[in-house]
Write a structure and sequence with these properties.
By secondary structure, the protein is an alpha/beta fold. It has 2 domains: 7-137, Nitrogenase molybdenum iron protein domain (Rossmann fold); 162-279, Nitrogenase molybdenum iron protein domain (Rossmann fold), CATH 3.40.50.1980. The protein has helices at 7-19, 33-41, 52-58, 79-84, 100-104, 121-135, 139-160, 186-194, 234-239, 242-245, 248-251, 267-279; strands at residues 28-30, 48-49, 69-70, 89-93, 108-112, 166-172, 177-181, 197-198, 211-212, 223-228, 255-260. Strand 1, helix 2 and strand 2 (48-49) form a beta-alpha-beta unit.
Length: 284
């Protein structure tokens, strides 16, 4: 089995791609969701992408045009359909490198990193955004996306003035369990970059397995940013949940309910998250 490239190798590749002359986009097929949202944010509509119905439920911005053809599961896309579409370029992330040989039999493949275990993801996403923009002929748009993220984080730092205060980005699994986003995740990375102390341990670029709600009480002074979707019943169910209402953060009004966001999103999702945190939400 081939060894997985490390962060330094991935970033070197992204920097090399970003330094090359820009090329026209051509017909694109995009497998990874972070790179799919980035492609759309760059103003390019791919010919095809994967798991579009689920994508539309989670990622509301940028809007997915109806012309994009659904290739099926990200981990097992329909290769016959993909081949029939005759793409000029297939865009994947490091998550799908294990299928690269199959894709290369159909078209040129561009593989870019999005998340690496134990590594802050924002520098990786910035590099990959610039590299993708350069490859598909949208370098100026890519620069604007990265600049917009940096501006949103700066606005968050100014508006909230976290100054090292603890914070947690979480997702509620059900009435009794919660998932926590660590420092190598998208939401944890934005909070840390804005000046919060992420009160969650490392989580392998995703989030923890569900833990009991009572775990949140261990960081009683933390602000809680709840990433949607909420469990059935939404905010009303939380209002009637005795375990939730007993949390010190709830009693102090330091809980902010946010809409659904892609846990493995790209620069556009990171920017939206930062803006949502600045805007705040109803405390519960």
């Amino acid at each position: 089995m081939a060894m997985q490239p490390n962060r330094r190798q991935f970033l070197a590749l992204a920097a090399l791609l970003a330094a090359r002359p820009a090329r026209a986009a051509g017909r694109l097929a995009v497998i990874d969701w972070a790179l799919l949202e980035t492609t759309l944010a760059l103003g390019v509509v791919p010919a095809a992408a994967a798991e579009l119905k689920q994508y539309a439920r989670i990622v509301s911005e940028p809007i997915m045009p109806q012309s994009v053809i659904d290739l099926g599961l990200r981990g097992n896309p329909n290769l016959e359909l993909l081949s029939n579409l005759t793409p000029d370029l297939i865009v994947i992330s490091n998550f799908y490198d294990y299928r690269r040989a199959s894709f290369e039999r159909i078209a040129e493949v561009l593989s870019l990193p999005v998340y690496l275990t134990g590594e802050p993801c924002l520098p990786i996403l910035r590099h990959s955004t610039l590299a993708l923009g350069q490859r598909i002929g949208r370098p100026e748009q890519a620069e604007r996306l990265v600049t917009a993220l940096d501006a949103a984080i700066a606005d968050l730092r100014l508006a909230r003035r976290p100054d090292g205060r603890p914070a947690m980005a979480i997702n509620l699994g059900d009435r009794r369990h919660v998932r926590l986003f660590g420092g190598d995740t998208l939401f944890g990375g934005v909070l840390s970059a804005a000046g919060y102390r992420n009160a969650v341990a490392d989580t392998r670029y995703s989030m923890t397995a569900p833990v009991g709600l009572e775990a949140l009480a261990r960081e009683a002074e933390a602000e809680l940013f709840v990433i949607g979707p909420l469990p059935p019943g939404g905010g009303d169910a939380l209002a009637g949940n005795a375990l939730w209402q007993a949390l010190p953060q709830v009693a102090a009004g330091r809980v902010h309910l946010l809409p659904a966001l892609d846990h493995f999103g790209g620069v556009a999702t990171a920017t939206r998250f930062a803006k949502l945190v600045v805007g705040g939400a109803a405390a519960r």
